[in-house]
Design a protein that fits this description.
The protein is of the alpha/beta class and about 220 residues long. The chain has one domain: Rossmann fold (3-Layer(aba) Sandwich). The protein is about 30% helix and about 35% strand. The chain has 6 helices and 12 strands. The strands form 3 sheets. Strands 1, 4, 5, 6, 7, 8, 9 and 10 form an 8-stranded mixed beta sheet that branches. β11 and β12 form a beta hairpin. It is globular and about 65 Å long. It starts with a strand and ends with a helix.
């Protein structure tokens, strides 16, 4: 399943517009907060697909029957741009386990590069629900390698991929390499990927906008 949330009118569209706007996005604190807000909305929508159990809760007056998540997911994020998105998801799945993956583009020329995975910190994810977060799904290479790295910590029973903006070609590429029943939660999908593998119109470099430019 692929869900493109910007195609459904909601307040998420305001946050997406502000992140894309080259004037508003210069405010890095607001950019990070908007990434976090999108993560919160995606977590809420994703939560509707999960399994719940009946619990009887004692209130000050009586007992109430409530439906509570039967398990907490594991949230995995590609550093560094994914941190605010990760925090938004964690705000709602606040008892989730967390994993972090360091991936970067190792350029051989101006337009050619390989994705390198340098670091993985993760709990055991065997038979758990895995949420993979990356704000920009460009070529899809980072997401595929991140998923493959996570398999060193077990085989999840269900995978969810969360991205704020994806390229159409990148999304298609990832869908060919991740499990068939993976669910994709996209803020929006753009048609163009430039010759330097940037999404267009996109929003620019999410990591730089959130945390400042890198050397």
């Amino acid at each position: 399943m692929v869900r493109i949330l910007a195609q459904e009118n909601s307040i998420l569209n305001n946050f997406m517009a502000e992140m894309r706007d080259d004037r508003i996005q210069k405010d890095s604190m607001r950019f990070r907060r908007n990434l976090e807000r999108v993560g919160e909305i995606m977590a809420y929508e994703l939560s509707k697909t999960m399994t719940y159990e009946k619990h009887e809760i004692s209130t000050p007056l009586d007992n109430a029957e409530c439906h509570i998540l039967s398990e907490q997911p594991a949230i995995a994020t590609i550093l560094r741009a994914g941190m605010p998105l990760h925090q938004g998801v964690l705000n709602y799945f606040d008892q989730a386990e967390n994993a972090f993956i360091s991936a970067y583009r190792k350029h051989t020329t101006d337009e050619e590069f390989e994705i390198e995975i340098e670091y993985l910190s993760s709990p055991n994810i065997d038979e758990k629900t895995l949420i993979l977060c990356d704000p920009m799904l460009a070529t899809g290479g980072s997401m595929i390698l991140a998923y493959e790295a996570m398999l060193k910590r077990g085989t999840p029973k269900q995978v969810h991929v969360l991205s704020v903006i994806a390229s159409k070609s990148g999304l298609d590429h990832v869908r060919k390499h991740l499990p068939e029943d993976t669910m994709y939660w996209m803020g929006d999908v753009d048609e163009t990927l430039t010759n330097k593998a940037y999404i267009s119109p996109g929003l620019g470099d999410a990591g730089d906008l959130a945390y400042g430019s890198k050397v």
